[in-house]
Amino acid sequence: MKTQEQWIVEQLQTKGYITRNQALRRYISRLGARICDLRQAGHHIIGEWIKTKNGRDYKYTLVK
Hints:
This protein is α+β, with helices and mostly antiparallel strands.
């Protein structure tokens, strides 16, 4: 079984981004805290609000 951070890093590396709603579907309610941990580990990740068809979502993107 993967840890939350492992799953998040995998999503960032394969898709290039992860959204708050994607994380919530995987029962990761503290995505911001996990992103903070990954930033401290040396990953360069930026975040931004995006517009979706049902409202808004927060998207984290891996900067290479």
